[in-house]
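dude i think i finally got it to work??
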Amino acid sequence: MRFAGEVTAWVCTPWALWPHSVPLAIGAVLLLIGLPAVFSTPGDRPGGDAPVAVPGIVTILLVVLHLVAAATSAWVLWGTWIAATVTVLCLVVPFTELPRWRALLSATRDQADRPPVTAETSAVHLGRTRP
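look at this
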């Protein structure tokens, strides 16, 4: 379901923006496709991680951005029935994404709970103490 919302955002947002501003439409495509390609939470993608690791909340916000863009552009482009269908899809996606979002947030929390590695903590873990 998330994929349907993302594809709708990728197609509809530039289509809705094109009559107003061609550079804005191109920029929307670059942002909607480029941001998730560059930024992702480590371990979230089965095919591999993106070049820039970000906390889980950033990945969640990127999904929400796609859903808002899809619903908004659907109302700009299409009639009531199609726009309402896209809006319902975009409202259902967060509920289907809850398990993934919980995992993304807990992975971020687990990483934040770990103490930073310093010379002192690594010496303690290795069984050595500092004089």
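The CA atoms of residues 95 and 101 lie 10 Å apart.
im so relieved honestly
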